[in-house]
Amino acid sequence: MIVQQWGTIEFRDAWRRQRELVDAILHQDHPDTLVLCEHPSVITLGRNTQQGSVLTQRELLGLRNIDVIEIDRGGEATVHNPGQLVGYPIFNLQRTKPDLHWFLRTVEQSIIDALRSFEIESGRVDGLTGVWIDSQRKICAIGIHCSRWVTSHGFALNVCNDLSLFSEIVPCGITDRGVTSLQREINPCPPLDEVVKAVSNSFTNNFQ
Fold first, then answer.
1. Distance between alpha carbon 207 and the CA centroid of its chain, in Å?
2. Hey, which of 10, 60, 61, 157 would disulfide with 66, CB 3.0 to 4.6 Å?
3. Which residue has the higher pLDDT, 29 or 86?
4. Quick check: is 172 catalytic?
């Protein structure tokens, strides 16, 4: 597994580059790759998004330069914006374990391990993919696509991003729980580059 850092990149550009990586892994024996990046403000809608999940008219969001993009990952509506660490594990599961349940649980464990390095205790909620604080506040959303056992899309870990944009949607279709970030949970919030390092290490430990 290798790690690539793409910096701040428009979501559509990152989606195109993910597809190029998937093709390289399938046809050129490219190594499994964890991409880490940030996106300008955008709302993405997974395949399972229910009608009404975007609470603000798209035209009004467009006036604020916030795109709403329908994509091919699982899950429902979520937000990406600066200060959030987005990770795309582009992995060929035939090299490790062709089991999507195992893959999702291992992604969750990698985030749990990374958060623990900052003395933040987190965990899972039965039936709800992602990583949670006290079972009530989601700190990391996860949604993937898998074709011929090669994964794409991934996770969005709230670090120091503006959480107010989540009020424009029903996050992941969940109405009875909230969202949080490292910045809300600990003071001072660790720099984003330290979070990048912790996540890179935990993925390396859990997937290699």
1. 17
2. 61
3. 86
4. yes
